[in-house]
Amino acid sequence: MRLLIFIVNRQAGNGRALKIWNQIKNELENKNVNYRSFNTEYPLHAEGLARQICSLYKDKIETIVAVGGDGTIHEVVNGMVDYPNIKVGYIPAGSGNDFSRGFHVPKSPLEALSFVLKQNRGKFYDIGKYAVNGSKNKYFVNSLGAGFDAAVSKLTNKSKMKKWLNKIGLGSLIYIGAVIRLLFTYRLTNITMIVDGITYRYDKVWFATVSNQPFYGGGMKIAPKASMTDGLLDITVVHNLSRIKLLFVFGTVFFGKHTGFKEVVQHKGRTISIESEDKMFVHADGEQIGQIPLKAEVQHRKISFV
Fold it and tell me: In terms of CB atoms within 10 Å, which of 38, 53, 247, 299 comes out highest?
């Protein structure tokens, strides 16, 4: 009988995920689905669980389903990357849920579950491989960000308002608030970027993102033309932009219209490296991972997603 494994981050969405999981569990039991579930207890636990489950039960399981936010799917994919024959499913239960936007997962948890239960076949999608400051290789599903957006992500994750705004479905406002707070204090720097062997230099850089799919930051369409199947990563650099004008640019990112500004540059490539003159923090799928220098490389059709 088909066995589904659920890895549940009950803390995702500041506790919202626990309510969603209870709904999912009731539905699974009502439908007599053959499943097992595992709860995460600390950072990177989902990655360890996924890797251990794949290793022990690789011939018995068909799909591992992550229940949580973008950080949860990030960890689960990192744990499953060496087991491409096991499919990855996702139930959105976080605050940003950019993975669900980019990979067309239904917003409703029960609809997402129904979709997983109906699908017997997965489809292979691209992911990205990265390393920061000489660290070992890891993987991302949505995007990497170096600079201002990583600083915003860090502040967002520490926000005391996050819990309350998530409860009323306005979690994306946390990101916007962090943008405004850091707008007048963030220090710009110069970067050198190499894309498929071609060197580019940019001055007074706000941030550089490497995207596998269009969305990040809770619904911002940072890379409108990004595709998860084209074997390329999309790079966006925002530089030489006044602090006031940055506000206007951010106002257009939700609609993907920021690419019309001369200070916004985009590239596509398979391999990317970024170095900076000053310190720049880096995030992967919204999780802090370290500092520049950064190296990234596309992994074409590496993971099978439901």
Answer: 53
